[in-house]
């Protein structure tokens, strides 16, 4: 896009210069000439990028009509003859272990909520944080992913397609200065790209942002953002470091009794949602394991001492690596009724940590990440397709696995601990035993990551800025 823009602006300059000379004849020649040069460079550029002939044709007609209309050429590139609009959004998910690009294509009928029509993604390892000490090296990976976006988004949509990077856990843990340097570098690369890049194009998400974005994704995919009357669904996520719960309260009491920091306001499609959303740092599954074992985050055990837990099989000894520290761990000797001992240890860890709401009983919830993995691990749901279960199923599975662990070592030594933890965590949130949860990775065949909700919200906020009357 740069050569075309350059051609356009040089044509502009000429247009401005020539009337100053007061030569009317020259102006008459300069307009078609400028247009011709502009077209020529455009076509050459497209050829150079191996674009298809039809695409080149569209680009040329765009430029031709754009030249007539002035700078509005690309303001609505997707408005086709039959009235629906196609648009794109590019979201980089900078996670702790890798960077992933999602390229979303949407379609919108006039006056309706957009639908997702296509998604492309590509992931690269390692994560951005691996370049903390050499930021220059981070650019080639970003560039590679940008090239994927350039191939996926048609040329004449580039300028109108927002490009955003949001970083999660990995960068959140880096010292502030190092993280900022990395983000600044990404921003430079983004600004040099042909996409729509705002000042807020790179940022670090906190747990609440992540939970809210995932909530948008789920409700967008289930269609409940579309039809305002339709009841929304809640979202439960269990990561390694933190766990999130997000839902839209309908009961006034929930809004009244929630502590500050648990309610967050979200604007989407001309509506304001007051969401209940909280991210519990330290209650993710891996952090919880460490706490249950009696270890401290970021610190090796004193004198390499062994961490002993009633949640591990009595005969078990081994090593466990967490956050780049290796801990020696073992089960408690001669333990009887492992599940009871383990549950009482886990309850200690969870005591007074979690805010409980009555309303969760009445909201439909989707659960993701480790909730899914653990349930699939013990056969409560299909590992590929997901499924539904009731909260009490985790308790039944925990009791069974822990009983087995009393006498037998298991492939996954943490299974008794993890299931007990999940079961009690859900109870702490206020879910009764018979509460049904949906566990899935995909809704309508689209992966349920926060990235979709985050780009969607970003695009919506851009359109609000454009037309504040909405
Ligand atoms: C998370 O970040 C958002 C801005 O992205 C901010 O509005 C919110 O207060 C933050 N929440 C917490 C709990 O830090
Ligand atoms: C947005 O909401 C206002 C007030 O509820 C309404 O008057 C307006 O028509 C809505 N706009 C759109 C685009 O839905």
TrEMBL record:
In its keyword annotation, does this UniProt entry include Magnesium? Answer: yes
Catalysed conversion reaction: IDP + H2O = IMP + phosphate + H(+); a ribonucleoside 5'-diphosphate + H2O = a ribonucleoside 5'-phosphate + phosphate + H(+); GDP + H2O = GMP + phosphate + H(+); CDP + H2O = CMP + phosphate + H(+)
What does the subunit section of this Swiss-Prot or TrEMBL entry state?
Answer: Monomer; active form. Homodimer; disulfide-linked. Homodimers are enzymatically inactive.
State the source organism's domain of life: Eukaryota
User: Where does this chain mainly localize?
Assistant: secreted
What function does the entry list?
Answer: Hydrolyzes nucleoside diphosphates with a preference for GDP, IDP and UDP compared to ADP and CDP. In the lumen of the endoplasmic reticulum, hydrolyzes UDP that acts as an end-product feedback inhibitor of the UDP-Glc:glycoprotein glucosyltransferases. UMP can be transported back by an UDP-sugar antiporter to the cytosol where it is consumed to regenerate UDP-glucose. Therefore, it positively regulates protein reglucosylation by clearing UDP from the ER lumen and by promoting the regeneration of UDP-glucose.
Q: Which residues bind ATP?
A: 240-244
- An example Gene Ontology cellular component term from the record? plasma membrane
Q: Which InterPro entries match?
A: GDA1_CD39_NTPase (IPR000407)
Q: Where in the cell is it found?
A: Secreted
Names of the cofactor(s)? Mg(2+); Ca(2+)
User: What is its pathway?
Assistant: Protein modification; protein glycosylation
Does the keyword Magnesium belong to this entry? yes
The residues responsible for catalysis, as annotated, are: 210
Q: Could you say which EC number(s) this protein's record lists?
A: 3.6.1.6
- This one is known as Ectonucleoside triphosphate diphosphohydrolase 5
Family in the record: Belongs to the GDA1/CD39 NTPase family.
Enzyme class of the recorded protein, top EC level: hydrolase
Provide the species name: Neovison vison (American mink)
Q: Which UniProt keywords apply?
A: ATP-binding, Calcium, Disulfide bond, Glycoprotein, Hydrolase, Magnesium, Membrane, Nucleotide-binding, Secreted, Transmembrane, Transmembrane helix
TM ranges are 29-48
Give this protein's Gene Ontology molecular function annotations.
Answer: ATP binding; CDP phosphatase activity; GDP phosphatase activity; IDP phosphatase activity; UDP phosphatase activity
């Amino acid at each position: 896009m740069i050569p075309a823009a350059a051609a356009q602006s040089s044509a502009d300059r000429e247009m401005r210069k020539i009337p100053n000379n007061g030569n009317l004849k020259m102006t008459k020649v300069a307009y078609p000439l400028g247009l011709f040069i502009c077209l020529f460079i455009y076509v050459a550029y497209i050829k150079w990028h191996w674009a298809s002939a039809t695409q080149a044709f569209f680009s040329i007609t765009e430029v031709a009509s754009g030249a007539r209309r002035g700078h509005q050429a690309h303001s609505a590139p997707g408005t086709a003859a039959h009235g629906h609009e196609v648009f794109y959004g590019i979201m980089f998910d900078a996670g702790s272990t890798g960077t992933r690009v999602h390229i979303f294509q949407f379609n919108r009928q006039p006056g309706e909520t957009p639908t997702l029509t296509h998604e492309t993604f590509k992931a690269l390892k390692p994560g951005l944080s691996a370049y903390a000490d050499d930021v220059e090296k981070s650019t080639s990976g970003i560039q590679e992913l940008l090239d994927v976006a350039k191939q996926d988004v048609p040329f004449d949509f580039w300028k109108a397609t927002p490009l955003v990077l949001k970083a999660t856990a990995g960068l959140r843990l880096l010292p502030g200065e190092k993280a900022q340097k990395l983000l600044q570098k990404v921003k430079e690369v983004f600004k040099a790209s042909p996409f729509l890049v705002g000042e807020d194009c790179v940022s670090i998400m906190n747990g609440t942002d992540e939970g809210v974005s995932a909530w948008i994704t789920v409700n967008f995919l289930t269609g409940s953002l579309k039809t305002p009357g339709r009841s929304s669904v809640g979202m439960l996520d269990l990561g390694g470091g933190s766990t999130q719960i997000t839902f839209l309260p309908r009961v006034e009491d929930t809004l009244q009794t929630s502590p500050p920091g648990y309610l967050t306001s979200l604007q989407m499609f001309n509506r304001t949602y007051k969401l209940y959303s909280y991210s519990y740092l330290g209650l993710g599954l891996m952090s919880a394991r460490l706490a249950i074992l009696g270890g401290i985050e970021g610190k090796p055990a004193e004198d390499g001492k062994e961490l002993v837990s009633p949640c591990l099989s009595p005969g078990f000894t081994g090593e466990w690596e967490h956050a780049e520290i290796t801990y020696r761990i073992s089960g408690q000797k001669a333990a009887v009724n492992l599940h009871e001992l383990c549950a009482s240890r886990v309850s200690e860890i969870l005591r007074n940590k979690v805010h409980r709401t009555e309303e969760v009983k009445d909201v439909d919830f989707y659960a993701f990440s480790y909730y899914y993995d653990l349930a699939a691990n013990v056969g409560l749901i299909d590992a590929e397709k997901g499924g539904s279960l009731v909260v009490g199923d985790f308790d039944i599975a925990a009791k069974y696995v822990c009983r087995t662990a009393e006498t037998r070592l298991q492939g996954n030594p943490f299974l008794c601990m993890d299931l007990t933890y999940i079961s009690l965590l859900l109870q702490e949130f206020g879910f009764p035993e018979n509460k049904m949860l949906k566990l899935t990775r995909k809704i309508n065949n689209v992966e349920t990551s926060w990235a979709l909700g985050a780009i969607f919200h970003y695009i919506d906020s851009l359109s609000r800025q454009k037309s504040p009357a909405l």
